[in-house]
């Protein structure tokens, strides 16, 4: 009987949520995104680089990110770069220039990652979105 009480008390403590946890995660993510934003164009931005700058191990970084946003650090870096690349393409940058501005080592690897993420090649994306931007500009005048 005493064991059941201790067990349920222990379980209640496990389910207890600390009120500042959300702010801690927000601070963690804010610091992380600042590091990524300031270095996304650097091909040396890696999981190791992020972990060092966040003062955690690579496994801790991956575990925290997986728990908070459901992505590994590597996936987060890649998606961040690809989203920035989409902006560069919409602004009229060519594929090679966009690849290097986004921190990818080669245009071919960038194209492969872009197509995998957006289900369309960077060139097709650029053409389709530049047309949409052109239509918005024309309709605004």
| CA-based shape | elongated
Q: Kindly state the mean pLDDT as a whole number?
A: 82
CATH class: Mainly Alpha
Helix-strand topology string = HHHHHHHH
- Overall strand count: 0
Q: How many alpha or pi helices? A: 8
Summarize the main sheet. Answer: none
Give the SSE map.
Blueprint lengths: L1 H14 L5 H19 L7 H8 L3 H11 L4 H18 L4 H7 L5 H12 L3 H19 L1
Helix pairs in contact: 3-4, 5-6
Q: How do you describe this structure in short?
A:
Helices cover 77% and strands 0% of the residues. It is mostly helical and 141 residues long. It has one domain (17-140): Orthogonal Bundle (Arc Repressor Mutant, subunit A), CATH 1.10.10.
Describe this structure in words.
The chain is mainly alpha-helical. It has a single domain (17-140), classed as Homeodomain-like (Arc Repressor Mutant, subunit A, Orthogonal Bundle). The protein has 8 helices and no strands. It has helices at 2-15, 21-39, 47-54, 58-68, 73-90, 95-101, 107-118, 122-140. α3 (47-54) crosses α4 (58-68) and α5 crosses α6. The longest helix is centred in the first third of the chain and has 19 residues, at 21-39. It is elongated and about 40 Å long. Residues 5-21 have low confidence and may be disordered.
């Amino acid at each position: 009987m005493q064991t059941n009480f201790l067990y349920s008390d222990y379980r209640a403590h496990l389910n207890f949520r600390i009120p500042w946890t959300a702010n801690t995660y927000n601070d963690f993510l804010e610091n992380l995104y600042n590091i990524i934003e300031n270095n996304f164009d650097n091909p040396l931005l890696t999981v190791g680089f992020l972990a060092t700058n966040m003062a955690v191990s690579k496994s801790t970084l991956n575990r925290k990110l997986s728990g908070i946003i459901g992505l590994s650090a590597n996936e987060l870096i890649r998606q961040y770069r690809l989203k920035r690349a989409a902006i560069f393409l919409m602004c009229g940058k060519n594929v090679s220039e966009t690849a290097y501005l986004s921190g990818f080592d080669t245009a071919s690897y960038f194209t492969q990652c872009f197509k995998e993420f957006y289900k369309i090649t960077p060139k097709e994306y650029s053409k389709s979105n530049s047309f949409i931007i052109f239509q918005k500009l024309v309709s605004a005048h």
